[in-house]
Amino acid sequence: MLRYSLKRLLSLGISLVVASLVIFAVIEVAPGDPARFMLGINAQPDTVAALRAELGLDVPKVQRYLAWVGGMLSGDFGISYTYRVPVGQMIADRMWVSLPLALMALTLSTVIALPVGLYAANRRGGRGDMAVMGLTQLGIAVPNFWFAMILVVIFAINLRWFSAGGFPGWDAGLLVGLKALTLPAVALALPQAAILSRVMRSALIDILSEDFMRTARAKGLTRQQALWRHGLRNALIPVLTIMGLQFSFLLAGAIIIEQVFFLPGLGRLVFQSISQRDLIVVESVVMLLVFAVIVVNFAVDLAYVAVDPRLRTQL
Amino acid sequence: MPQRFTARALTPVLALIATLSTASAAETDITIGMQLEPPHLDPTSAAAGAIDNVVYSNIFEGLTRFMGDGSVVPGLAKSWDISDDGLSYTFHLQGDVRFHDGSAMDAADVKFSLDRARAEDSTNAQKALFTGIADVAVIDPLTVVLTLEAPNGNLLFNLAWGDAVIVASETIETIKSNPVGTGAFRFVKWVQGDRIDLVRNGDYWGTAPALEGATFKFISDPTAAFAAMMAEDIDAFQTFPAPENLPQFDADPRFKLLIGSTEGETILSTNNKMPPFDNKLVRQALAHAIDRQAIIDGAMFGYGTPIGSHFAPHNPAYIDLTGNSVYDPAKAKALLAEAGFADGFTTTLKLPPPSYARRGGEIIAAQLRAVGINAEISNLEWAQWLEQVFRGKDYGLTIVSHTEPMDIGIYARPEYYFQYDNPAFQDLMTRLTATADPDQRRAMLQEAQTVISTDYVNGYLFQLAATSVAKTGVQGMWLNAPTQAIDLTGISWAD
């Protein structure tokens, strides 16, 4: 177990170094100068040069890369070119929107998907199963931004139960904050729930035909009891894999949803920073997302071992 | 009948809720939507119009200021004397003006602000506004003298820009995140990515505004902006990003449209040094190949005023020169043949993100194709546009709205991205700057408009309309946009 963890940890470190190189190279190669973007088309060349010097953009690229990586290792992400505030603080502020949103969406999609998957697998081929399969197909097909707009039209414009978007901040109260995140979380969660319930269903169906399930039934358990006690646990591996992927997706993929609901989250920060060529912010946020994805995958790998004791002896 | 009883019992409760919710929407505050969020709040070190939208005349004030009709009136300077040779301006400051931190605003702050803007290492995006100033001298706490290198008829106008506001040396370090000015509103807080809150300044030296507070909310997505207006989350939206939604607001009794004019001359910029555009006949052919009204109707849903030169129609010195470039494809073809391009040619049309450019570009490309010019469209982000087109001058044609007020002077800069190099025009601009007499200035401005119109420097398309949306009860918002600003001081709610 320890060796396994260390091996995973090493590959995690290598992934991060490679990712940082690729991110820096790709973003620095993109045409556009943050100083000129800020000063607009009337600025004189000497003014642009003065701002470039002030921002530290006249330093060679290799040196900037090393400073950036070195800074991140000590927890300092640098100063945003456009906003002129520490990038770390900006990311932390935005995390307070993006992370709760992703967690809400993940919880919601899990709470919906597991029972639905269980129900459908239990009634395989029946009318209920058909209905679930049809609805989930629809859920996967509908893009979440379109679904988000429909939610806005119904619940914000017509019923006026929610605002059309925006985030008042957690200091306005926990309930107010949660309310503001409800529609975006639903819009994010439903397509994910559709995917997850289908995975849950097919995993359970595979399990149902396994020998140990037949044995469980033979020793007198009802179909339900066998499913709950032996089926569910074994079906969790593929479900965990998908959930790991989904969490990264929810964190990074909320870019569009954050646009639709004009939420001040990480996705919107990246979006704005790219157009303003606030390179250091883009680099740091992308790096952070990569880090999150890698860490979540690492955690999922460890969770497999927790769920499936057989993996422990194989290692 | 228990059911009916319940309904009847609930009625007063519902009525109470309804009353409470209307009462909570106190009509002394306003929430205004904007598409772009300011990068920071220092108007003196960036070009972003979003900064001026929030701070101009609300938080920061200059010696002079723009009014909604474009006129320049006294601001922190209550009056001024100009020496006979036009080289020295003595400004008399308003007495008893305090910054929001309680410190007094005096002549030393004026000197600090202007010296900072024109300094060697200044990062003022409009540094050119201050170039002719030789010296700023403090006479007494309420008197400042500006000495110029040469007479400058534009000085009072230049000082009204958001880039020329008066800031305090004590608070300059934190101006970007915590702006401290002299205006009628104080900065309260900025939830980055979401909104900025302002509150009325109780110690304001001038007329107290009607509003007690204001919130600027940033919504970049046009669909989200539409939803937020419809859900009445916001009370007004400055320059609504989707012109196609405007008729819907117009038809809704809850809202009204505020249609005015901006300082944005929208032009088909042409690379005057790149063949074949170095040939005036080709540029003239371009001008006649373009149907302006079709572009205004197709790209802007009818909002916009045709222009025939680089000058705003609402300016008193404006002359209508659209007659120089009437839509005439046959004439365009003849001109191209005369220039040696009877079979047409291929060029690039590089388009920045705004819808006037992207939509207008499609229409222009089709119109040019009709006379044999093949314009290959490429869509660019702003940062790419600045790099390739503006700095690199690697383009044939592009579409952009020049939103700075009174910017005909850019045609006197041969290194400017459309690379128009006409010594006679440059001389005219030098003389204009040195002239203070209004009649002479007007004549010179009209001559300037005519020169660039008949030289067909660029394709002159239309003056960008200011298209804002507000709830019916909102009064006093600027219709026109003589500068980028959302002046809160005049806004109130109808009873």
Produce the secondary structure layout.
The complex is a heterodimer of chains A (315) and B (495).
Chain A (H helix, E strand, L loop, with lengths): L1 H28 L4 H6 L5 H11 L5 H13 L13 H36 L4 H15 L2 H15 L15 H35 L2 H8 L4 H30 L2 H6 L5 H11 L2 H29 L1 H6 L1
Chain B lengths: L1 H23 L4 E6 L14 H7 L8 E3 L5 E3 L2 E6 L5 E6 L13 H12 L14 E8 L2 E6 L6 H4 L26 E7 L3 E6 L12 E6 L3 H9 L5 E2 L8 H6 L3 E16 L9 H10 L2 H9 L4 E2 L22 H10 L6 E7 L3 H15 L3 E7 L2 H10 L5 E6 L20 H11 L4 H17 L4 E13 L2 E2 L16 E2 L2
Parallel strand pairs in B: 1-10, 1-11, 14-15, 14-16
Antiparallel strand pairs in B: 2-3, 4-5, 5-7, 6-7, 8-9, 9-10, 11-17, 12-16, 12-17, 13-17, 18-19
Helix pairs in contact in B: 7-9, 8-10, 12-13
- The gross shape of chain A turns out to be globular
* The CATH homology group name of the largest domain in chain A: MetI-like
Calculate Rg of chain B over CA atoms: 25 Å
CATH classification, class level of the largest domain in chain A: Mainly Alpha
Strand content of chain B: 15-25%
N-to-C series of helices and strands of chain A: HHHHHHHHHHHHHH
Largest sheet of chain B: 11 strands, mixed
Mean pLDDT rating of chain A: 85
Biggest sheet character of chain A: none
End-to-end separation of chain A: 7 Å
* Model regions low in confidence, pLDDT < 50 over at least 5 residues of chain B: 1-25
List the total number of helices of chain B.
13
User: What is the average of the pLDDT values of chain B?
Assistant: 90
Question: What is the SS-derived class of chain B?
Answer: alpha+beta
Quaternary structure of the protein: heterodimer
Per DSSP E runs of 2 or more residues, the count of β-strands of chain B stands at 19
Cα Rg of chain A = 24 Å
- What fraction of residues of chain A sit in β-strands? under 5%
The number of helical runs of chain A is 14
